[in-house]
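Problem: given the chain below (129 residues), write out its structure.
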Amino acid sequence: MGQQQLLLLVLGSVIVGLAIYTGVQFFDVYQQNNERDVVTQQINILVLDARKFAAKPTFLGGGNGKFTGYQPPNDLANTDRVRIYTGATEGAVIFTGFGSVNGTDGQSPVHIILQYTLADGKSEVEVIN
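Solution.
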């Protein structure tokens, strides 16, 4: 009877350990996906701001049909969870966003790059981590 109880105790411990490990993994994946969504949403807000900049004439502080000179508002580009860096040319703007949660490699933060082209109005998104 003692061996059966010991076997049940070991088996129960293994099952509980696997359940805890699986739960932690699910939580990490959910947190990474949520962080990617937050970074992407923040970048989309900046795309709208950049389009607004390009649509304004120069005398109103805009780009007069170009992205050249676009600088995003600091409160939108840098928050407690997201850092976004911007590079602008005449016809395109590139946003590189970093989250505060480590990505799938477990070492570097969530990293997303989005390029918006003014001529065709299309965005290309690349998820790095």
